[in-house]
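As described in the Methods, two query proteins were run sequentially through the folding procedure within a single session, without resetting any intermediate state between them. The first query and its resulting structure tokens are shown here.
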Amino acid sequence: MTCLKMNCPEFMARYRAAPSGSAVMLDVRNNDEVALGMLPNALHIPLGELPARCAELDKSKEIYLYCRSGNRTQVAFDILKQAGFPNVICSIQGGYDLLKTL
């Protein structure tokens, strides 16, 4: 089981180094925030919908979580761990605004 919390540069480096098809970038921001932009190839599930939509995610993949500032990713991290996701990586320092520059 790998459940990690890391800063944005480490988070992006790990995601980019993951073998193709082995990782999912998950945006847990609200719809209005996502309308302003999101990371390429990210999947969007708002935090409030995540408990009901966990089945849409593949437990065999690493799940990379991000939001605007890092607060919602910590809640999403706990939801996914509780749902039995063994590989969850969380960006806790910074968020979308910093991640999009990396």
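Immediately afterward, the second query was submitted; its sequence and tokens are:
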Amino acid sequence: MAKKSIVFREIKRLDKKKSPLKHQEKDFRMSKIMENFVKPYLHLASNFQEKEKLFTLGMIAWNASLYPQSERADIIDILFSQEVIGDDYNLQKDLTVIIMTFNDRKLTFFADYQRLIIDFDLTKVGEFYDLSVTSQSKE
């Protein structure tokens, strides 16, 4: 019996040594990944609508980061073009900076996660928020 528990402990120990960013897809929830992705900026959002906008920008940056560098700029240019957001150059510039910041964060800290985010739902539950994410494999 003692031998069995030693083996069991060793398996558990080796399991814990895995990098937190190298989980297999069954081992993580995209909602938690997105929360961690956006978390450093959540303090900038003072209400529900601002949090929702922040997650939308995070989703755009996340998905753009899954494409080659040469295509990312085109995606951002199209999303924040004059036809989409109007003539406000400062808004276009600010949104581009936010997306590029998120993009850098994705590539630096979340590069192992290659799922495309299809949609998300942010729901207010009392004083807290619940995030649900729909995603699929990029391939």
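The longest strand covers residues 115-125. We note this only descriptively and draw no conclusion about the first query from it.
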